[in-house]
Design brief:
- The complex is a heterodimer.
- Chain A is mostly beta strands.
- Helices cover about 5% and strands about 35% of the residues of chain A.
- Chain A has a domain of about 150 residues.
- Chain A has two helices and 18 strands.
- By secondary structure, chain B is of the alpha/beta class.
- The two termini of chain B are about 45 Å apart.
- Classes of the chains: A mainly beta, B alpha/beta.
């Protein structure tokens, strides 16, 4: 089953649209799509008020649904929230909280993702071809756990607080990450192919691989060894910490510099 | 007529020993207040009546027209923002939250551009706090990190810390040690026993390093951290551990520099670590006299301390998404009610630029930068001068503000109460 949603022009396109019902499960009942609603600011709108809906075929399980979202999608929030299976393809940018708490399935984003992509994710896969904003694969305010499972891969750069409170699963950033990636992380794996700043503050567990340079390296990590790894092979420093927090996390770093 | 023990409606020290002399309905003399407070008491530049701006021309209008137009603007909006609230009393703040709920708006206070990050940190690791009275009478070590009380909270040192007498201290002034950390040598730094000259954005690393040192882990610390020599860090950690009662005050230097709430979290966790050795507490140096009050009111009414989005009828909270600066900078909101604050003077250019393109109603005793592009200005009485009401001090102690003048203008509660009543009527809530 393929569902294609194309955004219609809106009077005020900058007002965000909360669309947590845009998940494969919502389209299993073919007549159900007409009754779905989204919120534009404080007004509840029918799905067809904001989108042209095109449905091909049918499906019995979420896994058989492919949901394609195209048009002016940068202000759509919470797409793919709590999805359990199937595939969502976003042809442009996507708004905040995409793939919140998702359990399974795949989200493909062709453009950039706004903040909180894959927040508190439990399983499944997210691939973002552009950049991701702050709080990629992180937790929610005041919660003790962030992402617990699944894979998030960003081909561009990521913003600040990437993988905050990471508690499981794998996060891969092919570009640079911003300030404080892996902060408070407890488990799981974070891979940053480029540079970042002040990595892993307060981490208690998990593994982090940084293939570029860590600027303003935090002084509370103890160097415990070196290892030759990567392609082409290069020497990496191995750190453990965060000592300030009695942490037992491990970071493999290609280059680092302190702010003395 | 002389009024004693008046509360000062300027900063969150909320000094309650001000003496105000009134003659012919004007304040002629103010004693005990600092320059900032005195200036607020003495200034009497107010609008006589509401003003409305249409096609660039201002005209005076009646209160009836002002309120009915405000109601119209708020009801029309798809994403209204209600911002400000820190310089009014809690009763008015409560009405603001009720209005936000009925119209499905976003309500945020100036907290989000000052100590909002402190609250985020407190939500993660708690608040080892105490009242200022405890600090005054017991603290023998005072830390001011990223704040400059001599210039921003001028009576803080004389009422609560360095220069105040303490019941459990013999010679308080000599016994109390003072540590100041800042990126430049401020007035407060000059009187410090130990001054940490911190490089920009280095607070997180330095606080982490002190935490590690307090735990006895010193080997991996480089010879200096963020401009502070390791020797000094060792000295400071020792001073903190040896104190009988230490207190950590912090300001924008910690909350609004890179890392924001993670800086504050590191400070809180340092205080937690120090409590394994001695008694240590932490208090944010809140700015406006009732900014803490908004957090209290908002928490008991909505469950969240600020930045609450009611657009779907339920309270949703996510600073960064539902905070005023972000909503304005992204150009989301289509109408704004500004109460008791001046966003144009404090917010980034992008946010202010958007604010100037939407209908804005300002309810404020004074004219300020924001007034210039408002559609409506509604003058009100000033809390603590000609309006009564409750306010919360920076340590969370609620105090009743007195009125020393008879008010000519309606209070915030009068105006907001009427707006709320009409909105409820229009929405059919009775």
């Amino acid at each position: 089953m393929k569902v294609v949603l194309t955004t219609k022009p809106r009077k005020n396109p900058r007002i965000p649209v909360e669309a947590e019902l845009l998940i494969p499960e919502s389209f299993l009942d073919p007549s159900g799509a007409e009754e779905l609603t989204v919120w534009e600011g404080n007004r509840e709108r029918g799905l067809s008020d904001l989108f042209d809906i095109h449905v091909e075929g049918g499906a019995e399980k979420a896994e058989e649904v492919q949901l394609v979202v195209r048009g002016d999608t940068g202000t759509l929030k919470r797409v793919g929230e709590r999805m359990t299976g199937g595939r969502i393809l976003i042809e442009g940018d996507i708004g905040m909280h995409c793939g919140n708490l998702m359990k399974g399935g795949t989200i493909e984003i062709a453009g950039n993702a706004d903040a909180w992509l894959g927040r508190e994710m439990l399983g499944g896969e997210i691939r973002c071809r552009g950049n991701a904003n702050h709080y990629l694969a992180s937790g929610y305010r005041g919660e003790k756990f962030g992402m617990k499972g699944g894979v998030v891969e960003v081909f561009g750069n990521a913003g600040d607080y990437t993988a905050e409170y990471l508690s499981g699963g794998k996060v891969i950033v092919h570009g640079n990450a911003g300030d404080l990636p892996g902060i408070e992380m407890a488990a799981g794996t974070l891979v940053i192919m480029g540079d970042c700043r002040r990595a892993c503050g307060n981490m208690t567990g998990g593994e982090v691989y940084i293939h570029g340079t860590v600027h303003q390296m935090l002084p509370t990590f103890r160097k415990v060894g070196e290892k030759v790894m990567g392609e082409p092979p290069a020497p990496y420093s191995i750190f453990t910490g965060d000592i300030a927090n009695r942490g037992k996390g491990t970071i493999f770093i290609r280059n680092y510099q302190y702010l003395l | 007529m002389i009024y004693h023990d008046v509360l000062c409606p300027f900063c969150a020290c909320l000094c309650d020993d001000i003496v105000v002399e009134v003659e012919d309905g004007r304040i002629v003399k103010v004693d005990n207040a600092c320059d900032l407070g005195t200036h607020k008491f003495m200034s009497d530049e107010k609008l006589r009546s509401p003003m409305r701006r249409e096609r660039g021309v201002w005209r005076e209008v009646g209160m009836e027209e002002a309120i009915s137009r405000t109601v119209e603007i708020l009801l029309d909006a798809d994403r209204p923002l209600l911002y400000g609230w820190s310089s009014t009393h809690v009763e008015a703040q409560g009405l603001g939250i009720r209005i936000a709920e009925v119209i499905g708006g976003v309500i945020d206070s100036t907290t989000s551009i000052c100590h909002g990050p402190s609250i985020l940190a407190i939500q993660e690791v708690g608040h080892p706090g105490s009242t200022l009275g405890q600090i005054k009478n017991r603290a023998d070590l005072v830390v001011y990190w990223g704040c400059n009380p001599i210039e921003a909270h001028p009576r803080h040192l004389s009422r609560y810390t360095t220069y105040a007498d303490g019941f459990f201290l013999n010679k308080a002034f000599r016994e109390r040690k003072l540590i100041v950390a800042d990126t430049r040598r401020t007035q407060s730094a000059r009187i410090a026993d130990e001054f940490l000259l911190v490089k920009h954005d280095a607070d997180y690393a330095i606080l982490g390093a002190i935490r590690a040192i307090v735990r006895g882990q010193t080997d991996m610390i480089p010879p200096s951290v963020g401009g502070v020599p390791k020797q000094q860090l060792l000295r400071v950690a020792e001073m903190c551990k040896k104190a009988k009662y230490g207190v950590f005050f912090f300001g924008m230097g910690l909350t609004q520099t890179a890392g924001k709430y993670k800086n504050v979290r590191n400070a809180i966790e340092l205080v937690i670590e120090l409590n394994r050795h001695t008694k240590f507490t932490l208090t944010p140096m809140r700015g406006h006299f009732n900014v803490y009050g908004f957090n209290e009111v908002c928490t008991w009414m909505t469950g969240y301390p600020y930045a609450v989005d009611y657009s779907r009828g339920l309270a949703f909270y996510n600073p960064g998404e539902t905070t005023a600066v972000d909503i304005l900078a992204r150009g989301e909101c289509d109408a704004c009610l500004v109460v008791a604050s001046d966003p144009a003077a404090h917010m980034p250019k992008k946010a202010v630029a958007h604010l100037s393109t939407i209908p804005v109603v300002q309810i404020d005793p004074q004219i300020n930068l924001t007034s210039a592009f408002c559609e409506l200005l509604i003058p009100v009485a000033t809390t603590g001068i000609d309006a009564e009401g409750s306010a919360y001090r920076m340590d969370g102690v609620p105090l009743r503000m007195k009125a020393v003048l008879k008010n000519v203008h309606p209070t915030d509660t009068d105006v907001l109460g009427e707006i709320y009543r009409r909105i409820r009527g229009a929405k059919g809530c009775g």
